[in-house]
Amino acid sequence: MTTMADPDPAPSSSAVPGLQVLGADVGATRARVRIRALGPHGELGTLLASAEGPGYNPNSSGPDGPAGLVDAVRTALLAAQAGARLQAPVRTVAVLGIAGAAAAHHAQVEEVVRAALAPLGLPARDVSIVDDMLPAFAAGSAHGEGLLLLGGTGSAAVRFSGFAPVRRCDGMGWLLGDTGSAVWIGREVLQAAACDLDGRGPATALTADVLAELGLPVPRPGAPRDGSGDDVRQGLIAAVRPLAPAHWGRLAPIAQRHPRDGIAREILARAAAELVAKVDAVRDGAAEIVLAGSVLSENPEVSRRVRAELADRQLEVLEAGPPVEGALRLAAQRAAEALRS
Predict the structure, then answer these.
(1) More confident residue, 79 or 319
(2) CA nearest 25: which of 249, 331, 325, 335?
(3) pTM of whole model > 0.70?
(4) Number of domains forming the structure of the chain
(5) Largest Cα span, the chain
(6) What Cα–Cα distance (Å) separates residue 84 from each residue in 50, 206, 271?
(7) What is the DSSP string of 194-212?
(8) Domain for residue 300, yes or no?
(9) CATH code, domain carrying 335
């Protein structure tokens, strides 16, 4: 886990005393938490602290649940308190954007996360749990109208009006959808390696990288293919079985390491096509789009293909900040509402 306290975190004279806002961007593999002061007009103020730790997703995380997220929140709260030299209790209004916290699982996720954060001094009334789509959109849109294309551990496209979702495509989890996501790409990479080793698919440079990532040897010529314990395919089965789906996404970068490999190029081309298809499903005349997620920010080939398709559709791409800043913007709105009530 990494943490950071602002080098000069003492609250400014313009900050609302006794009140701070916390935003969190929580994916399946990583959680980012930031705390800021709140300005007198509801604007975001000084960065007080930040922390990162393991993520949480009810659909794909392992047995530890939100423990890593709770640790990151605790670390940020302690850093903010120590850095600002606070003596009096401070109220923290928090918004956590969590992957997998859409309507199907929202009540469950909200109950679990609020209960986990309560011992940290965060009462349920001050903790808002939202789907990770909303902070990602808020990080790029100033007026709340337009589209979001999310390509991260999961994937979805959403059309917003007034920062409220009015139409959504995908975000249904790895079993039913999330096509074009990091998990989807990682699974395609795994399957390509399995097909290569099994002889039911073409040879691909992806295989050696997959085996190395999983700590397995590349089979030598004439190695056993009889299903015995010396057969590398059995090792692959054993290595993959315990992996949570979120871990598959860590294999996604393997595809972009091999730009000359036909299988890798095909996987990335299909990923881009799947993402763009979601945009087409929800657009309905929208003119602006926010792009978010690791696939669109860290995979140059997928990003290039997606942006070219969006340009052909005359969609203006809004360059978004980190989703955690979108969560902070939403927390500031809620804190301002609390002050008025």
Answers:
(1) 79
(2) 325
(3) yes
(4) 2
(5) 75
(6) 13, 49, 45
(7) HHHHHTSS---THHHHHHH
(8) yes
(9) 3.30.420.40
